Amino acid sequence: MLTTEMLAKVRRIQIRTTKLVNDILAGRYESVFRGQGVEFKEVREYVPGDDVRNIDWNVTARTGTPYVKVLTEERELTIMLVVDASGSQRFGSVSQFKLELSAEVCAVLSFSAIQNNDRVGLIVFTDDVELFLPPRKGRKHGLRVIREVLYHEPKSSRTNISKSLEFLSQILKRRSVIFILSDFNDTHYEKTMKVLSRRHDVIACLITDPRELTLPDVGLITIADAENGKEITIDTGNPKFREKYTLKARAEYERKKKLLLQSGAEILDIRTDKPYIDELYRFFRARERKTNR
Is the entire prediction scored with pTM above 0.90? Predict the structure, then answer.
């Protein structure tokens, strides 16, 4: 059951992200994510200049006057938010955990979609699909998405990205836009993502904390793996150790990005120490320019 404090936090996120949607991303979402085709709207009399391929021959034969079909873009989209809730997402060295940051990004994307009358669905996963909210419209549904991301109690601390992507492939019957929010600390998901990317528009939101890339000098510390619980003591006071850690961490970070691109996904680089709205705005602008070419 949600407490008053929990509901207040959801409300704060709603207010903050709605303002961002209205002030910064207004119009960007619709121009970037367009409908998946055209649908019939009505017929009208032919006028010179109309495309003859749109002539409705049945109506024309019945009336004796040329009529053409009027087509309109099928605007409605399905946006799927796929959120990693494994143990590594409950880490953060700045002002919030990676999972809390994921909730805010989900809020911005949800309210952008809902404002454009699109449907939003949610999957929360660990090493299994733990929660599935079917795509729906409406602000009430958008608020539930935020609540579930923030306060879902995971049954596992481990990660299996491939299983969540296989689940998506089974349930999505039409082309959708899929945002995967994770640190992608997993292996063997490339093949599944490639298959998914052929049918859907896949955007990988790579969530990273600065402490995962560099270590501060705080002497001897014991750290635990958030997913398997293994502990290790390290000497952060050793400059060579810190340098080696940074090189290895950055190499792994670049490997993830390369792997995601090769798997057919676009990348949104989200960090806990930088304003995520700046990255979203850059992403939308880049997609808008690409779409309008």
Answer: no
> Over the chain, what is the mean pLDDT?
87
Q: Sorting pLDDT into bands at 50, 70 and 90, what band is 1?
A: low
Q: What is the 3-state secondary structure (H, E, C) of the chain?
A: CCCHHHHHHHHHHHHHHHHHHHHCCCCHHHHHCCCCCEEEEEEEECCCCCCHHHECHHHHHHHCCCEEEEEEECCCCEEEEEEECCHHHCCCCCCCCHHHHHHHHHHHHHHHHHHCCCEEEEEEECCCEEEEEEEECCHHHHHHHHHHHHHCCCCCCCCCHHHHHHHHHHHCCCCCEEEEEECCCCCCCHHHHHHHHHHCEEEEEEEECHHHCCCCCCCEEEEECCCCCCEEEEECCCHHHHHHHHHHHHHHHHHHHHHHHHCCCEEEEEECCCCHHHHHHHHHHHHHHHHCC
Choose among 178, 204, 179: nearest CA to 257.
204
Q: How far is Cα 163 from Cα 180, in angstroms, rounded to an integer? A: 13
pLDDT tens digits for 268-286? 999 999 999 999 988 888 8
Query: For tokens 């859907």, what's the residue?
Result: 200
Q: 49: phi > 0 → left, psi -120 to 50 → alpha, else beta; which?
A: left
Closest of 134, 130, 200 to residue 159, by C-alpha:
130
Instruction: Work out whether the CA dihedral 103, 276, 185, 265 comes out positive or negative.
Output: positive
Domain residue spans of the chain: 4-31+75-291, 38-73
pLDDT, tens digit, 9 for 90 and up, residues 94-121:
889 999 999 999 999 999 888 888 899 9
Fold of the domain spanning 4-31+75-291: Rossmann fold (3.40.50)
